[in-house]
Amino acid sequence: MAIQDKQMKLNIAHVWDISSATYDDKEGHGIQSEIEREAWKTLFQSLLPSGRLEVLDAGCGTGEIGLLFAEMGHRVTGLDFSEKMLAKAREKTSRKKYEINFRAGDAENPPFEAETFDVVVTRHLLWTLPHPDTAVRNWKKVLRKGGVLIVIDGLYNGGLIERKTRQFISDFLTLLVERRYPKRRQYPDEIKTELPNPYGVPPKKIIEYFRKTEFKNIKDLDLKEISKIQKEKMSFRKRIVFKPQSYLIYGEKV
């Protein structure tokens, strides 16, 4: 890894360290209801091979997605660059009495032997990576034959006038009702300029990464129903700004 690349990733990890304390409170991140929890499980179950699987949760953050797979009976490894995110994930899984093997490391270059996992899953990760195409290739390497890659991502904060207007209204209501101005987690400009997808990865681009890496049986699934469930649990001010374009891209290693 080049020195510049390594420093950028350390800077990215620092941003997520700062965000770890409130990450699960942000709309669309922490799972806020059993209905949403079951919806995710139902979706994943429809995509997975049979049997008890070895699952890599790449860029696991606070462990929300890995926990779902553990609850479904699979063996889960969580990998993240942010030590504070991992601390949150370990505390959460300990409280819920599940065992997940959490490791600090680069999700773009997972430190595992080839053909170690049956499933690699990521959520809200690909847009944060400086080399997403390299990540997809490396995820394929650690998958066994017949394994599946699941990438959940979206388009975020694209600078559109509509979104900025909704954000302003939401901030104003927070200031009016809660007497505070909401803090925002944002990458510094010097990081954004180095990322190919700083505002989210379009599904067509993810599919292109999958095809170049020769994944087969690729699927593009819209997550509108899960987003609808998430929105039902939000306060009015959060519902105003929450208008995600989220999707799941699936592929098989054959």
Automatic annotation (TrEMBL):
Residues 56-151 form the Methyltransferase type domain. It comes from the Archaea. Pfam families: Methyltransf_11. InterPro entries: Methyltransf_11, SAM-dependent_MTases_sf. GO terms for molecular function: S-adenosylmethionine-dependent methyltransferase activity. This is Methyltransferase type 11 domain-containing protein. It comes from Methanosarcina siciliae T4/M.
